[in-house]
Amino acid sequence: MTLSRLAELAADRDASFVLIARDGADTVELLTGDVVDVDLLADIPLTVDGAAREVFAMVPYRQVRERGFVAQDDGAPLRCVIVHEHLHLPTRELLADLPKTSVPLRDQGFDIADDEYARIVETVIADEIGRGEGANFVIRRDFTAHIDVDDRTAALTWFRALLTHERGAYWTFAVFTPGHISVGASPEAHVVAREGVVTMNPISGTFRHPAGGATRETLVEFLSSTKETEELFMVVDEELKMMSAVCSDGGRITGPHLKEMSRLTHTEYMLRGRSRLDPRDILRETMFAPTVTGSPMQNACAVIRRHERKPRGYYSGVAALFTPNDDGGHDLDAPILIRTVYLENGTLSVPVGATLVRHSDPHGEVSETHGKAAGVLGAIGAIDRDSVAEARSDADAPGETRSLADDPLVAELLSSRNSRLADFWLNPQGDDFTGPFAGRTAVVVDAEDRFTTMLAHQLRHLGLDVTIAQWSEVQDADLDAADLVIAGPGPGDPRDGANDRIARMREIVARRLDQTAPLLAVCLSHQILADRLGIDLAPLDTPHQGLQKAVPVFGEDASIGFYNTFTARVAPGTTKVGDAGVSADPATGDVYALRGERFASVQGHLESILSRDGIRTLERLVTQALA
Q1: Per-residue b/e over 334-359, b at no fewer than 16 CB within 10 Å?
Q2: What is the CA 606 to chain-centroid distance, rounded?
Q3: Over the stretch 535-573, which tens digit does the pLDDT of each residue have?
Q4: Same domain, yes or no, for 553 and 612?
Q5: Long-range Cβ contact pairs of 477-482 (< 8 A, separation 24 or more)
Q6: Is residue 92 classed as helix, strand or coil in its secondary structure?
Q7: For 265-301, b where at least 16 C-beta lie within 10 A, e where not — what string?
Q8: Would you say residue 393 has pLDDT above 60?
């Protein structure tokens, strides 16, 4: 009966339905219902005529404008399927009924040539990362081709291929709505909310299996890569910013783990926290994954807008399933839309992106996009499947798959990563906010880097009553009323007074200094403070994006995470400039911290997971500012 229902839907070109296979399940879920397009996430109809309804939604990248971020508007709809029936089809039986004949491609290739894409990569590294606009950015290109088979038949064929040959995908799915067909296998749950617990799953680092499959030796080499490790830490920092915005307890990290798939292996962490927010609000505050945008998020969207040739459609958005729960609300399950094929009128499109960091090799990033596209196309059987990479020569018995995560050396390498991280984010934090500064108020000024949400969370644990205010909206009266102002971090060149954001942060720093009012300045604002004190600013030879360093901070060495392209610099050995105390690198003169009458500052991000001594150092500097 249920399989015949799918056959009926597949034959009806006007029918809308969704297929979802979850990792580890032995059934495929079939959802049917009415299609409604809405403008905003808040408009997703979780109740109809007063009754709670299950809703599946395709959330396009352009919805990021709801957070005030920029995006090219291609009109891709925020499409909802209000579910009428939700069936579970036995996977084994379904595989027998789905079409098996391969679908050949023609006229295939990338929409941006390799050399041109390499030039874009070079430009982003030099002009964006090199000018302090952020730590990493994802720039995408599309593999396109044509097919001579009905779109629905092709999508069902490829869905079967993914069920048969891919492993480790969080969701394997196919979506059929008017004017939109997509099929994919997403490895990553972007955000999940169940019974008041929010989970995010940052994944970074891509190990493409060599011929013969992944082995202990090849995986150990991958896990030993500093670049891959730092990329994962940067992604965790970026998603903790989101967790701190939606969870009262800020979020705790567990892991790292291996995400083993057929041709690829990734490294991942799990982030968990508690939230009472509406799931649509949780989704809005977590748009979208830094693994496919970059960080800091707001500026990453601006960089994408400057360098990508066309709108993103659904690439890097999410598929979201809202399911009524026993508490009268809705649970949320939202995987990221990557590893996905889009079909329209016989044209196939596979968007893929490379994560660009300070030490990216342009031609290596070109190769990365080829590998990702080939992985998707091979998984759906559109090109020859890389069977040698899928093989596992180290399996204990023919046909048996053994997880490499169980290998003692691999497990040791994974767990050793946490020795670099801040205990504050690894351990349960609780909700006791009666710290040493209880009864004091603070305003954190957000200069377009949501590290401020993590910083505010730590300040609350120190007892402060904290409000976050945007640089463009905060009023002088609100600043004057606060016991402490924290001038926050942000992208850009601190010397650029023509930039409205830099100019406003200069005003805020100057106002607090002139009033001798307590001030803590972080990263960009630390540089602005240094400039105000007459200290020179200069670009670093190599940007410190996601870099962990042990540095002197007024008599104590502290392990701190850095995300800066510029630095304040004094002559080596300088410990004082005017009345301000200086803590600087003894060899280079790079200034790590400043302190004076009712102010303090720090170049690093004490709130970062890379700052093992972050909370201790933060307490010391706040004490200085409030003294």
Answers
A1: bbbbbbbbbbeeeebbbbbbbbbbbe
A2: 20
A3: 999 999 888 888 999 999 999 999 999 999 999 999 999
A4: yes
A5: 478/443, 479/443, 479/445, 479/508, 479/511, 479/512, 480/515, 480/517, 481/441, 482/441, 482/442, 482/443
A6: helix
A7: bbbbbbbbbebebbbbbbbbbbbbbbbbbbbbbbbbb
A8: no
* 471 and 380, same domain (yes or no): no
The verdict on residue 253 lying in a domain is no
**Domain shared by 184 and 299, yes or no:** yes
Q: What pLDDT digit, counting tens, does each position of 43-101 carry?
A: 999 999 889 999 999 999 999 999 999 999 999 999 999 999 999 999 999 999 999 88
Gap between the Cα atoms of 459 and 401, Å rounded: 47
CA 10, 13, 17, 21 dihedral sign is positive
Candidates 190, 330, 461, 605; catalytic one: 605
Indicate if 607 belongs to the active site.
yes
Check 308, 390, 607, 619 and give the catalytic one: 607
Name the domain count of the chain: 2
CA distances from 627 to 270, 467, 483, 485, 597 (A): 39, 21, 11, 14, 8
Residue 523 is a catalytic residue? yes
CATH number for the domain spanning 614: value is 3.40.50.880
pTM, 2 dp: 0.89
Q: Are residue 344 and residue 440 in the same domain, yes or no?
A: no
- Do 373 and 469 lie in a common domain? no
Q: Which of 334, 314, 335, 311 is nearest to 323 (CA)?
A: 334
**How do beta strands 55-59 and 51-52 pair?**
unpaired
Q: Which domain holds residue 162?
A: 2-196+276-385
If asked whether residues 436 and 355 sit together in one domain, one would say no
Residue 229 lies in a domain: no
pLDDT, tens digit, for every residue of 258-304? 888 777 788 889 999 999 999 999 999 999 999 899 988 999 999 99
Whether 605 sits among the annotated catalytic residues: the reply is: yes
Beta strand 47-48 pairing with 27-38: unpaired
Q: What is the pLDDT of residue 397?
A: 35
Between CA 608 and CA 593 the distance in angstroms is: 16
Given 230, 523, 526, 544, the catalytic residue:
523
Examine the domain organization and report whether 23 and 118 are in the same domain.
yes
d(C-alpha 244, C-alpha 536), whole Å:
34
Let me know whether 373 and 443 are in one domain. no
Please indicate, yes or no, if residue 217 is contained in any of the structural domains.
no
Q: Has residue 520 been placed in a domain?
A: yes
